[in-house]
Amino acid sequence: MAKKKQKQLKKDLSTVKGQLTKTEKKLAKAEDRKDRWKKEAKAHKKSAAKAGARADLLKEQLEEASATLRSTPSEDQVEAASVDEPGTTGSDGTGTPDESWTVVQLRAEARARGLTGMSGASKSDLVAALR
Q1: In the predicted model, what is the mean pLDDT of residues 30-56?
Q2: Phi then psi for 127, rounded to 5 degrees?
Q3: 44 DSSP assignment
Q4: Residue 115 carries which DSSP code?
Q5: To the nearest whole percent, how much of the chain has pLDDT over 90?
Q6: Which residues contact 131 (CB under 8 A, 6 or more apart)?
Q7: Which residues span the domain enclosing 51?
Q8: What is the percent of the chain with per-residue pLDDT over 70, rounded to a whole number?
Q9: CA dist list (Å): 118 to 11, 23, 99, 102, 103
Q10: Do 124 and 97 contact (CB within 8 A), yes or no?
Q11: Which of 72, 94, 115 lies at the terminal end of a domain, its last residue?
């Protein structure tokens, strides 16, 4: 009976060693995954930090551009100011448009006179239409 017990103990020991080997392999795989995930997390954190810095830079550029747009007069304001300027009379001192007027001034005058289709017209076409 001692031989049977010894044989059973050897069998049990072999089973336990096999389970231990499987468990050690699973543990090694889990450790590898942990290391891989740590590296990936570190890379993601670095990428997120770069993206955050880029977003901050873009916000600053947007704010600068918005401030510039707020401080720059619109085309309509420029055209309105151009019409009111004393230099809007022709070279002969009259209010008749001539080649000395800017395109902006000519377009504003055309708009004031109710002419349509002049937004894409050339300077010479505008002068001809306004004479």
Answers
A1: 96
A2: -60, -45
A3: H
A4: -
A5: 51
A6: 96, 97
A7: 1-72
A8: 82
A9: 101, 84, 16, 14, 10
A10: no
A11: 72
